[in-house]
Design goal:
Shape: globular
Order of helices and strands: HEEHHEHEHEEHEHEHEHEEHHHHHHH
Number of strands: 11
Strand order of the largest sheet: 1-3-2-4-11-5
Distance between the termini: 19 Å
Helix content: 25-40%
Structural class: alpha/beta
């Protein structure tokens, strides 16, 4: 996702959110990053490749000339298979990766999986991170570069009860109880902007049970997760995006190591092209990829896969993404975030953005 830490406690406890296990909307973040046993070369028979943008598919080999073997690459997710990664699975299942000459193994993530370090150290070729994590890693000397950002709007939100009548986060912070991890950048941003002196701040416990039971209780959430769980338990969640308050880091950012970009830029470009194609197909119809991910993530039922995919669509297909292309990143957004992280004391000094975006595709 992004700062995945803000979701870990919640998602580790999701199996207990509903009375019937089949209704659990997500799975534990305690899983280890292990391969799903498949690669883009193992797409199921009958999976028709999605149409490739003009000029992006490699030329077909001459008749009688053996095709070059696909390049084996690894993609490390920062969480388990769920809709926020749907486009990557679709790129594999549809043949988009294969058309670009790539045989992609997708590694599922879990709590504490060091994706940035795995990419920087060369254990994997590509990884998923959040923009704030990328900037922090770069400031510490990590050899990573962002390529594209799937989520243009961060799904990080504050969830309260509809009956409270709040019009925004400022209203939520005027009274009641708020469960939040205060050490995260977005929480520090909200505290600096509004103050937490009128609300009782308690630790975020990773579930929605207290929210459902207490009408004066609010909590951090991802708009694609906790609200779905609370609603399915009969509660009345109202959500407010932190992005609307001015703190909006890119989420599900595809990263690679700078060394790979220098050594094989075409492979990196090919991965980015196939990723965009996969996401276009997934947004049009998530059925195939959801079915594959559901087999890998059995704690999340089909109904929740559908609901989460629909909830995230406007965060991915923003007006800017529709105009400039899925995954678009701007220098201005990165500069703004870097300045905010310095202002919040997360970074001592903002990295040079032009150096950061040399591989932005």
């Amino acid at each position: 996702m992004h700062s995945s830490d803000s979701r870990r406690l919640f998602l580790q406890a999701l199996a207990s959110l509903v009375a019937v296990p089949v209704l659990a909307p997500a799975c534990s973040r305690s899983q280890s990053p292990e391969g799903d046993g498949r690669s883009s070369a193992a797409s199921p028979a009958g999976s028709a490749p999605a149409a490739s943008p003009a000029g992006t598919a490699p030329a077909a080999p001459a008749q009688g000339t053996p095709a070059a073997p696909a390049a084996k690459v690894k993609l490390a997710l920062n969480w388990v298979p769920e809709p926020e990664f749907g486009g990557f699975y679709e790129a594999r299942e549809s043949g988009a990766f294969a058309k670009e000459g790539l045989d992609v193994e997708i590694l599922g993530g879990g709590a504490g999986v060091p994706v940035v370090q795995m990419v920087a150290g060369g254990q994997v070729d590509f990884g998923i991170s959040g923009a704030d994590e990328v900037l922090t890693a770069r400031a510490r000397g990590a050899d990573v570069l962002p390529l594209l950002a799937v989520f243009q709007t961060s799904p990080q939100s504050i969830m309260t009860h509809e009956t409270r009548g709040a019009k925004g986060i400022a209203d939520v912070l005027k009274s009641g109880t708020l469960a939040i991890e205060p050490g995260l950048p977005y929480a520090a941003y909200l505290k600096k902007k509004y103050g937490f002196d009128k609300v009782k701040v308690v630790p975020y416990d990773g579930g929605v049970a207290r929210f459902v039971a207490d009408k004066d209780f609010s909590q951090q959430c991802f708009i694609t997760a906790e609200p779905i769980a609370a609603r399915r338990k009969g509660s009345d969640p109202a959500t407010f995006l932190v992005a609307s308050e001015g703190f909006n880091p890119y989420v599900v950012v595809v990263i690679t190591r700078a060394a790979l970009w220098k050594e094989n830029p075409e492979r990196v470009r090919a991965f980015a092209r196939a990723t965009r194609e996969g996401w276009r197909t997934y947004l049009h119809d998530p059925t195939r990829a959801n079915g594959i991910m559901a087999k890998l993530n059995t704690s999340m039922d089909a109904e929740t896969f559908i609901a989460a995919a629909e909830a995230q669509r406007p965060l991915i297909e923003t007006p800017e993404a529709k105009e400039k292309g899925l995954g678009v990143m701007t220098r201005e957004r990165w500069e703004t975030l870097a300045k905010q992280l310095v202002d919040l004391g997360v970074l001592q000094k903002a990295p040079t953005i032009d150096d950061l975006l040399v591989a932005a595709l």
